[in-house]
TrEMBL record:
It comes from Nocardioides agri. Pfam families: PGI. The lineage of its organism: Bacteria, Bacillati, Actinomycetota, Actinomycetes, Propionibacteriales. It comes from the Bacteria. Keywords: Cytoplasm, Gluconeogenesis, Glycolysis, Isomerase. One of its GO terms (biological process) is glycolytic process. This is Glucose-6-phosphate isomerase. InterPro entries: G6P_Isomerase (IPR001672), G6P_Isomerase_C (IPR023096), Phosphoglucose_isomerase_CS (IPR018189), SIS_dom_sf (IPR046348), SIS_PGI_1 (IPR035476), SIS_PGI_2 (IPR035482). GO terms for cellular component: cytosol. The active site is at E361 (proton donor), H392, K516. Catalyzes the reversible isomerization of glucose-6-phosphate to fructose-6-phosphate.
Amino acid sequence: MSRAAGPVDPTTTSAWSGLEAITAEFIPDLSRWFAEDPGRVDRFTFEAGDLHVDLSKGLVDDEVLAALVALADEVGLTERRDQMLRGDRINVTEDRAVLHTALRLPADATLELDGTDVVPEVHDVLRRVYDFADRVRSGAWTGVTGERIRTVVNIGIGGSDLGPVMAYEALAAYRHDQIECRFISNIDPTDAATTLSGLDPATTLFIVSSKTFGTLETLTNARLCKAWLLDGLAGHDQAEAVAKHFVAVSTALDKVADFGIDPDNAFGFWDWVGGRYSMDSAIGTSLVVAIGPERFAELLAGFHTMDEHFRTAPLTENVPVLMGLLNVWYTNFLGAETHAVLPYAQLLHRFPAYLQQLTMESNGKGVRWDGAAVAYDTGEVFWGEPGTNGQHAFYQLIHQGTRLVPADFIAFATPAYPLKDGATDVHELFLANFFAQTRALAFGKTADEVRAEGTREEIVPSRVFTGNRPTASIMAPELSPSVLGQLVALYEHITFTQGVIWGIDSFDQWGVELGKQLAQQISPAVAGDEAVAAQQDASTQSLIAYYRRHRQ
Ligand code: F6P
């Protein structure tokens, strides 16, 4: 079918009408579906790279899936995907290409943007980052006193923090054993104070990571750290101290120089990399120092594996597409408002936080990319915690509450740290919980089953589990750098798929601007400027007054 120049309103498609008709009659019954359909697990289980993805415990049948794929066809998902991958300016409101996938193309690939092949540029920067990381890791890069670097502090926020810190935690088993990375993001001075606590300036190196190099939090923290460093290294030449203890990652290399960082110590990237899609650019420099260039290259190869799957697999077998479409089904037809991501891997404890920016900054939009208001729900609230901690906190609501909470469960066959409790392999105990939870959510427990356990009749209803609570199970052999790359790329493309169905620009983030502007405007009032305070609304005036009365 030919595509209109603007986004398609998905509610005008025949597939959407078909899905509405299906919804009206839809009675999910996973117990029956499993009993009557021995092929269900095979049909709804997919492989993408090293990821094994079982969607059979989702609230989906063949008819729903076919209608969702038809919806993807009608809104032009594959065309939009191909536009992204070839560098069309699909970030319409910022008039930019969206090419994070170019960051992980192999060196012998080519991708022309405005007449220039971007792949050699990507690999030039990678080589410089790798060389820098090798020097820090080997001790060849020394601080101003001649000592080797022991701590790398990444200063950044949002996409310039969440990706590196998530991956640093996830790949703990691969870290250099003599170099620690720390991360400062919040403008709450407590963050800088506690992160710097106990560090020796002579052995500390700062990486100021900011795409724009204009972010208030990051520049303030960078200045705090610079002052801390120069104070601790008093007596040494200041310019030399900054040169040996500060590097920067940014697209705005002129601003890096203005800050006093030697351009030779700066690593660039490009406006076609969105902040929340940038952990595989030079923004990952702290991670490269931690795990080394070879492992980082494996991470990039993992991303690329998933990109290739997304680019080439038919929609009916395309895991990110199918998961994105299911999310649309749950959001727009079954009324889900949130989506839980539950890694059964302690090392992924920052993964839900990382995904919150990826998904919610991308798809939390109320207008399509041509500016027309949407008349349907978009971006769900993503949240989560590692299992089994979540089991003892919020799973009650997922099992028995009144809301539908689709959940992704993630687990690995081989643990990073195999430990035994006597004869018991603790990882197996852990995985038993992973398997048990999705089973309980899918199939529940009937009143008769509860009664058969001898339960008092009055409390039988409280002990019934309705089941039919949808989950996706994602498994991989182990949490290696490559698998982490595949996992992140999977969610990038799930997010993209949802954005295309909804017709929104998943790559801008205008919604964070107003708060930033107002903070600048209100700042003098907080410091005591009565005239500026008087311009605020009554509630804000009252809150500022409270602050000024109580500040010691
Ligand atoms: O929160 C808005 C945002 O622009 C994010 O998209 C971005 O990741 C973050 O701020 C940090 O921006 P920068 O890397 O330019 O400092």
